[in-house]
Design goal:
Helices cover 20% and strands 15% of the residues. With 308 residues, it is α/β, with parallel strands linked by helices.
Length: 308
């Protein structure tokens, strides 16, 4: 089994001085950040030879607890997402090896209790921003569901995703380097599906301007920070699940992060990954919510051999 990294940072004051000691304890906010194809060797706090800095994730390690003997039961990502959201071993699902394929039905059964459902039952606002990769009930033209691309009606609600498993709100793109290349909100497509890219990291010829892989992580980081800002002053606690698309391939650093390290695109992508974590921590600090928020950073299965 591959080593993985779990860093938990309880950004709270001591119990004696915090709201946990009050007669009516306030429920803490909880944020779970899941890195994709990232191990302990990609965090400067644990690898002094990394050659770059990851200050936000380093802060979690410095101020919280790090579990250094954690293991993954699978070397790919869908099983980890299943286990994290259901609390079950991944091999108890129908998926005994590999990942959920394109156009596949949901891996999480409709009646399976999930982590966001538990939070929701305790009065939390539950939100997911990021990569799902656990399958959907694709609506069939004329009714029913299908796993055949030519039969899918992309104008209808797409069930079996995050909002059907306990999240009040979802924004994401399922898998950024798989079709349909489109933004989603809850169970609907926000943008028309693109079924095949002409170029970039996924094909030959000029890239399709309708889908920009370099924009994905930048958008997620911004939206996560905005959500934290929006929760300021609200009595209702929140649970935010942020499954990153990075630093998984295709390596796609965006904006100011392209070439920022002078080392490699992968190194640039690591810096951007850390930036996204930092945006969330900064939002907590700026809104005064840090003292009552638990932040958990973990990864699915360790660093990809494709990292350079």
């Amino acid at each position: 089994m591959k080593h993985t990294l779990i860093t938990l940072c309880a950004l709270c004051a001591s119990v004696a001085n915090s709201s946990f000691a009050a007669a009516t304890p306030k429920k803490p906010n909880v944020i779970v950040i899941l890195g994709d194809d990232m191990g302990i060797d990609s965090v400067s706090a644990f690898n002094p030879k990394l050659g770059l800095k990851t200050p936000a994730i380093d802060r979690l390690a410095r101020e919280g607890m790090s579990f250094m003997d954690a293991h993954s039961t699978s070397g790919v990502c869908s099983p980890t997402r299943y286990g994290l959201l259901t609390g079950r071993y991944n091999w108890r699902s129908r998926l005994k090896r590999g990942i959920v394929g394109q156009w596949e039905r949901p891996l999480i059964a409709d009646k399976r209790i999930t982590l966001p459902e538990l939070f929701h039952g305790k009065g939390y606002d539950t939100r997911m921003i990021g990569k799902w990769h656990l399958g959907w009930h694709w609506p069939k033209k004329g009714g029913g569901t299908t796993q055949k691309l030519g039969e899918i009606d992309f104008t209808k609600p797409i069930k079996g995703g995050p909002v059907d498993h306990g999240f009040n709100y979802y924004y994401g793109d399922d898998v950024p380097n798989w079709p349909p290349f489109a933004w989603r909100e809850n169970d609907r497509m926000l943008t028309p599906p693109v079924l095949k890219l002409k170029g970039g990291a996924l094909g030959n010829g000029p890239a399709d301007p309708r889908w920009d892989l370099t924009a994905v992580l930048l958008d997620y980081g911004k939206r996560c920070a905005e959500y934290v800002h929006d929760r300021k002053g609200k009595e209702q606690p929140f649970f935010l699940y942020f499954p990153m698309p990075s630093p998984h391939t295709p390596i796609a650093p965006g904006g100011k992060f392209k070439g920022i390290t002078g080392i490699s695109p992968y190194a640039d992508f690591l810096v951007e990954t850390d930036w996204a974590v930092g945006e969330i921590l900064k939002a907590l600090d700026d809104t005064g919510q840090a003292d009552n928020t638990v932040v958990i950073f973990t990864c699915d299965n360790g660093t990809s051999p494709q990292a350079k």
